[in-house]
Task: inverse folding
């Protein structure tokens, strides 16, 4: 996504040539503050009311949810970023 101006909240960073895995606590404060009650609750509700609640949401679904919940803070989600990782660890769709 060259030239994409939207932020991506990556889980893996390299600091001093060492892998550092970031998490929810490392997200921007407007997301981190109440992530569990703001974003994850909406994801849980979407899964609960879906036709296949046993299936993890794919990345496109998480992106739509993120866009709905954080409409004032647009971002492009990736399958290994700190926003989507705790919700859908095994999502491989991009």
Result:
């Amino acid at each position: 996504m060259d030239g994409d101006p939207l932020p991506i909240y990556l889980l893996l960073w390299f600091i001093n040539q060492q892998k550092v895995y970031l998490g929810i606590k490392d997200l921007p404060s407007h997301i981190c503050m109440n992530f569990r009650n703001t974003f994850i609750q909406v994801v849980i509700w979407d899964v609960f009311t879906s036709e296949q609640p046993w299936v993890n949401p794919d990345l496109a679904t998480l992106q739509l949810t993120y866009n709905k919940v954080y409409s004032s803070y647009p971002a492009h989600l990736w399958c290994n970023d700190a926003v989507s990782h705790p919700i859908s660890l095994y999502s491989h769709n991009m």
Observations:
- Residues 36 and 42 are 9 Å apart (CA to CA).
- The radius of gyration is 14 Å.
- The longest strand covers residues 12-15.
